[in-house]
Write a structure and sequence with these properties.
CATH architecture of the largest domain: Up-down Bundle
Radius of gyration: 18 Å
Shape: globular
Distance between the termini: 27 Å
Strand order of the largest sheet: 1-3-2
CATH class of the largest domain: Mainly Alpha
Strand content: under 5%
CATH topology of the largest domain: Four Helix Bundle (Hemerythrin (Met), subunit A)
Helix content: 55-70%
Length: 223
């Protein structure tokens, strides 16, 4: 039986479900059973219920009354909407704080780009997503707009789930590196319009590509 620390159960359940999705143990359209999840983690059902509610609010879980909770399976237009929205928010966050990045920050970003490319060459889906998260987290780390940060965080896990599932069908390892390097290059330019445009395009491109190969109607997998 998997065990977890006896603190912040709800957050740990969220993390556990998220890891299960990235690892492919739970697939989009698959059902998440509250009782089974509680048994796996060795905890009561109350924090599991709280975690599933939060995941539902953030769009990772779809709750069907009288049926249960399922890993969200988004139709193409919603996938595009999610990526477009994150691009707009992150583009603004980076553009508005562009003057706060240090030489050390740029070096860290460059190192993360190189590591992403390396992990992609190894075919390590999960690590590509995790290193990518470090990259984008650093880019928005100077933002002090709490409302903006909250909205970006709500989209973060949803984007990771989608990208982890599809990235190897969308981009080569070289492309994984190049598309992130373009963001660093735009930041180095100091041009606010170029930064926003580059970040928005970074996200909208992925949204369009994922939408093009995802199930066309977002129907439940009843199998």
């Amino acid at each position: 039986m998997t065990t977890i620390q006896k603190t912040t159960y709800k957050d740990q359940v969220i993390g556990y479900v998220y890891e299960c999705i990235l690892d492919g143990r739970h697939l989009p359209g698959g059902q998440i059973k509250e009782a089974l999840l509680a048994k796996e983690l060795g905890i009561s059902r109350a924090p599991v219920r709280e975690a599933l509610k939060e995941l539902t609010v953030n769009g990772i879980i779809d709750y069907r009354p009288q049926v249960g909770s399922f890993i969200a399976l988004l139709p193409p237009h919603q996938i595009r909407d999610v990526y477009t929205t994150r691009g707009v928010l992150e583009g603004y966050a980076i553009m508005s704080t562009r003057e706060q990045f240090t030489t050390g920050d740029i070096e860290k970003l460059q190192a993360l780009v190189a590591r992403m490319r390396h992990e992609a060459e190894l075919g390590n889906r999960k690590m590509v997503v995790q290193v990518g998260d470090d990259f984008h987290s650093l880019l928005i780390s100077r933002n002090r707009n709490l409302q903006l940060a909250e909205y970006m965080e709500r989209l973060r896990l949803k984007l990771h789930v989608l990208f982890c599932r599809y990235w190897s069908d969308l981009y080569s390892p070289a492309e994984i590196g190049n598309r992130h390097q373009r963001i660093v290059t735009s930041l180095l330019s100091g041009d606010p319009a170029a930064i926003e445009q580059t970040v928005r395009r970074h996200y909208s491109e992925s949204g369009d590509r994922i939408a093009a190969i995802s199930p066309p109607n977002g129907q439940w997998n009843e199998a």
